[in-house]
């Protein structure tokens, strides 16, 4: 039985120390402020990004890794004896990152055992699955068992997120200008999720407090309400809002773990500052 190694991309928003401890390889996407280009999580960390976002006169844009970026990592890992690679990435509906991984696999001349997976979700929605898979790999589980675990978590995990401003979603083409303007004027807070690989509006609630409470209610309507869960709360430079949401989650669910992370530069560029997100996974 081979050794299983996990590869992902920077939009998974996995804390750096977790990646290092579990041996997870991360391919960075790029963030552009005008003519300046940064590698997500490498030359630009989350805290630096949000400071730059305040100061910059231009809105940031993002771009996917090239197949060569994946090829370099696949080649290096493939030199390890009996290695088996699982490469999990942001939804192909949201980025071309997964396609770059698939192309890199096809370009690898050496014999290699690589499985590429389109997570059909984003941020820690698949980052948590990568972490669970890496933990299973560290326990010596087979690749087949890890792939079954990944599919189960993809089927059962849930996420909801709440943005503070609609400006970034509008700039990214997720909503129209009129909807963004009316939403801002009426203080509408759209509760969003990722379904069938795409970002979708689940409900529109007036006011931050009511929207946060509705997120809790939506999770309670799922099978998560009656089982033990692992929860990650992510935020875009608003730790206080994340901690307040964490207190509500602790009071409402049977938690095995509750942790916090910061949304990275690429995800932050699309949702903007002030975003909070809850990612919930069934306990294995």
Automatic annotation (TrEMBL):
What InterPro entries would the database entry show?
DegV, DegV_C, DegV_domain_contain
- Pfam families given in the database record: DegV
Keyword terms, alphabetized: Lipid-binding
Superkingdom classification of source: Bacteria
Which lineage is the organism of this entry classified under, starting from the top rank?
Bacteria, Bacillati, Bacillota, Bacilli, Bacillales
Instruction: Name the species this protein comes from.
Output: Paenibacillus psychroresistens
Q: What is this protein called?
A: DegV family protein
What would you give as a GO molecular function for this chain, any one? lipid binding
């Amino acid at each position: 039985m081979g050794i299983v190694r996990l590869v992902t991309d920077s939009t998974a928003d996995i804390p750096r120390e977790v990646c290092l401890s579990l041996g997870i390889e991360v391919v960075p996407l790029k963030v552009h402020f005008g003519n300046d280009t940064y590698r997500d999580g490498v030359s630009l960390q989350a805290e630096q990004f949000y400071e730059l976002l305040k100061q910059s006169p231009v809105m940031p844009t993002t771009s996917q890794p090239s197949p060569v970026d994946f090829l370099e990592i696949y080649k290096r890992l493939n030199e390890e004896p009996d290695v088996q690679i699982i490469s999990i990435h942001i939804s192909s509906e949201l980025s071309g990152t997964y396609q770059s991984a698939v192309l890199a696999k096809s370009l690898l001349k050496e014999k290699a055992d690589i499985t590429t997976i389109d997570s059909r979700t984003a941020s820690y929605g698949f980052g948590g699955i990568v972490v669970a898979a890496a933990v299973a790999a560290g326990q010596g589980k087979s690749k087949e068992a890890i792939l079954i675990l990944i599919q189960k978590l993809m089927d059962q995990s849930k996420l909801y997120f709440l943005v503070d401003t609609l400006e970034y979603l509008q700039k990214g083409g997720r909503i129209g200008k009129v909807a963004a303007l009316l939403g801002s004027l009426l203080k509408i807070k759209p509760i969003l999720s990722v379904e069938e690989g795409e970002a979708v509006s689940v409900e529109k609630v007036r006011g931050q407090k009511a929207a946060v409470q509705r997120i809790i209610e939506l999770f309670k309507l799922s099978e998560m309400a009656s089982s033990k869960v692992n929860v990650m709360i992510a935020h875009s430079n608003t730790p206080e809002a994340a901690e307040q949401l964490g207190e509500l989650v602790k009071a409402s669910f049977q938690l095995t773990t509750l942790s916090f992370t910061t949304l990275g530069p690429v995800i932050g560029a699309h949702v903007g500052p002030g975003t909070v997100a809850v990612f919930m996974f069934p306990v294995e």
